[in-house]
Amino acid sequence: MRARATPYLLVGPASLLLVLFGVLPIVVALVVSMTDMDAAGLGDLSRVSFIGAANYQALFADPSFWQALRNTAFYVLLGVPSVVIVSLVAALALNHTDNRFFRALRSFYFLPAITGIVAIALVWGYLYNSQFGLFNYLLSLVGLPPVPWLSSPAVVKYSVAAVAIWRGTGLNIIIFLAALQGVPREYLEAAALDGASRLRTTWSIVLPLLRFAIFFVTVTTVIAWLQFFDEAFVLTKGGPLGASTSVSLFLFQEGFSGARFGYASAGSVVLFVIIAAVTVVQLRTRRTDADL
Description:
Elements: H1 2-32, H2 39-43, H3 54-60, H4 63-95, H5 100-114, H6 117-128, H7 134-141, H8 156-180, H9 185-193, H10 198-209, H11 211-226, H12 230-235, H13 247-257, H14 261-287
Helix pairs in contact: 1-14, 3-14, 4-8, 4-11, 4-13, 5-8, 8-11, 9-10, 11-14, 13-14
């Protein structure tokens, strides 16, 4: 009995935390999404009424929600490949050297991941400034007109995504570097003896051995970009004209600024379903690869 109970006792605290802070909030959000809860309802639940799927009907008829959904799809399609490729290339470049300079450089690449988003927004806000920003100054040196980085609906999504890509590569570089340390040196030495170039060795030996790390980074990056929020919130507040508003930012604005908690909860449930569906598809893709 003791031997059987010990594993459950060990995982019990973690399971309790998962239920309290993972499963329970999802259930609460699902229940609230079927009500008309607002600021008044927080203090007096008797004012809260059950309205069924009305919030979902209003959500799917809301052009602002569909705009936010399109923006989020844009961020995912642009950001995920960029983050994975840039992180992998940087990790491969940093892995070939092992002196003090490049060890310090690895730490330098990781700094954006641990730097506060407010500080990052201040720096990038000055860089993007349309009047005295560094980017427009560099464009002026080659005779190009200034670009409204954060004030043009056509440009702002790229500007905000660029900050997120720069910020998101640091942690993934560390993950890829850790995976590269597990590549057997014998394989690399055998390839060198056979006359394989560094590019050929990387393509035929290193990358296949990194498939699990690439898969892990891709899954976590997709989930993170589906919840895209920080950069859009601190740089543009979703503007101009909602051009940079993601689904998470839309839900924040509806829930905390508009005090429409039932409506925002319906949106959060929809976002949860989207993330879960995408994750399931990725996991099924992994299961089809026996060597992964």
